[in-house]
Amino acid sequence: MRSSLSVFGTHAFRVIRQPNKQGCEWAPRANASSFQVISTTLARYDHHEILKSKDAIHEAYVDLLADTKWIDCVSKSTGDYQNIKYAFETWRARLDQIMKASIGLDKTRLFSMAFKENLYEQNKYCSICGQRISSILDAHVDHVEEYWLGGRTIPENARLTHRTCNMKRPRASASQISST
User: Which residue in 3, 58, 136, 170 is a FRET match for 66, CA 20 to 30 A apart?
Assistant: First the structure.
């Protein structure tokens, strides 16, 4: 759901009404079949991968809404197997194409305890505040380049910090990233 909100905002799971004199507009309510198709296919991917491709995903969906067969499949006879199959396969093919072009993040998000212990033994000082870390329990291995921005879980992208310093450090927001 978070991915859907990130990509589509308040238009999540809606279809476009037929064009009128003022142009196209979003339907006022969510479409149940579109909900099923979009939510289950987006759930196949990591939220951070979706964020990297959200503009392309949004445009692919808007383009899909010009496919009258797809609109019929999510609007009429929505329990018909062939309609369900077409709706899912058509959207999934578009989404998979976009996501294939996206460079995925590491599937391993956390550094190992052994790696953390090794860092702690090498240098017991916080990389953020410079103060001594009194216990390994107070230590945290932080991604220098944030994971959600594509920072990999590799030794070159790791630093030892106080757990509290890491939690309080400034983070880049999605709006800061999209404006660059």
Answer: 3
**Coil, helix or strand for 53?**
coil
Give residue 21's Cα distance to chain centre. Answer: 36
Sequence spans of domains, the chain: 2-101, 113-170
Q: Which helix (H) or strand (E) holds 140?
A: strand 139-143
Is this model's pTM higher than 0.85 or not? no
Radius of gyration of the chain from Cα atoms? Answer: 22
Across 128-152, b (16+ Cβ under 10 Å) vs e yields beeeebeeeeebbbbbeeebbebbe
What percent of the residues of the chain are helix, what percent strand, and what percent coil, each to the nearest 5? 55, 10, 35
Tokens 């993040």 locate to 105
pLDDT digits (tens, 9 = 90+) for 15-66: 876 655 555 677 888 888 889 899 999 998 888 888 888 888 888 887 888 7
Query: Phi-psi bin for 133: left (phi > 0), alpha (psi -120 to 50), beta?
Result: beta
